């Protein structure tokens, strides 16, 4: 057992913290207010190599581990939840499936520019009628000669408005038992028939781009199928297992930001003749918040470590996501409570953390789905 | 070009500093590259990229300083040297550090040596000039601009908010002032590559130095925190009376006039 971070992990933490503090935090308020995706920040994130952390050098990555990646998500998320979400989605959902399941040719063509930070990619899974029940996917892909023709609709797709490539899931046939076979396809966003709109007006993570995708007779070459044609469903379940670690890390970052604000405020705010931090009612809240953050972070690191050790991590990443995101909601809520009336004002920023945190209990598998994943892992 | 950077690991003065038993509490303190030395690292990398050569970062300290050296390597320096004095020197001062650095540097044929103009912990600003003296090369402190053409060097230095341009030649030692450049963040590939870059560790023995050779010339008598800031006072009443009251207080209470 060794709970200390390696020198590289510490250096990454300090660098990202420094970068996020200087380049993201000062604009976080404005990004939320204007619901603006900070392209200029993503350019810098790319230049620093942060989009390539968990990928090997042969694809332009840094050869870092999942723990380093989780640390980066936490630090960016601490500065701005929306930017953190877009960062996490770009790596875990945009690049990872191509790295996990792509052919060498697909990796060279699609993954390398992503890892180098020259482009973003998105993962199109959710549909208006297929959310938690991804098996209910209605988008269809039909093989016509050398091309797949894809028709359907995807919703709430992170970063799609700025993506160069989409990984889209679609029903490509039926198995011998008559069940839908779901496959994944790589679709460049300049393909004719593809319409991407970003009109959603969201409660939180407003700096993150969220888009709707309509596919009308979108034609992609046969070789753009990603991984095993018959295992698209299993592939995205694996992709989501990895994504959960990053969403949990993001939750830890948001909670840490809210906690630090609340702690500072409670030491400065004087009522009844002393700082409110000295009242047990407030001090105990802060104790709970600090403890829960640390527990969640440990779970994130453990799930990331299991993934790096190539051990099963499905259950642990669900633990991490479920606990960290619900913890983040509680912590951000208490941070507002500690701030009292001031906390309800946007200027004090803690209300933004709560709005951002809410999404984390929904996106990449709701809390209910996490409980389902865990209970199935337990053999229920 | 053979470039050396003098780097110090310091505690982060933006964090809260506490004392115990007359010493600064190191537990829980955050340690960083002295911010002025970060400008030095950045400048060294820029000079190397423009003129070729190699950047070596040197520090005098203990094992813990390896992290700061690795960070400089991650920013782009080529080599690092840790002169570990943990076992040999108990209480060093600026003389100690300068003596060790100059012994290390004397046979290195350095063209350019860059340090920070001051360390934010001790704040003496002496090590750079002392090293130059001992090496018998010119030095310029608090520089905000460095231009090198062949052996000729043009430097702009900060003189209490004004600036002074100085022309000189290599070899040279300069110390960096804020404004010299904007230090880069170590990139991810940089951090991963830093692992594989050479980091040598030396002790006094390796420099043919005895403990007596580097014994401190100064003695620390006491370390204390500045007094807590008292609440301000707002004077009331007629302006003329306020001025009179203020001058009276400056004389009798603050005793500054």
From TrEMBL, chain A:
Residues 6-118 form the Acyl-CoA dehydrogenase/oxidase N-terminal domain. Transmembrane segments: none annotated. Pfam families: Acyl-CoA_dh_1, Acyl-CoA_dh_M, Acyl-CoA_dh_N. Residues 230-378 form the Acyl-CoA dehydrogenase/oxidase C-terminal domain. Residues 122-218 form the Acyl-CoA oxidase/dehydrogenase middle domain. Keywords: FAD, Flavoprotein, Oxidoreductase. Its cofactor is FAD. Belongs to the acyl-CoA dehydrogenase family. This is Alkylation response protein AidB-like acyl-CoA dehydrogenase. It comes from Peribacillus deserti.
Automatic annotation (TrEMBL), chain B:
It comes from the Bacteria. CDD domains: ETF_beta (cd01714). InterPro entries: ET-Flavoprotein_bsu_CS, ETF_a/b_N, ETF_b, ETF_beta_N, Rossmann-like_a/b/a_fold. Residues 21-211 form the Electron transfer flavoprotein alpha/beta-subunit N-terminal domain. Gene3D superfamilies: HUPs. Keywords: Electron transport, Transport. Its cofactor is AMP. Belongs to the ETF beta-subunit/FixA family. Heterodimer of an alpha and a beta subunit. The electron transfer flavoprotein serves as a specific electron acceptor for other dehydrogenases. It transfers the electrons to the main respiratory chain via ETF-ubiquinone oxidoreductase (ETF dehydrogenase). This is Electron transfer flavoprotein subunit beta. It comes from Peribacillus deserti.
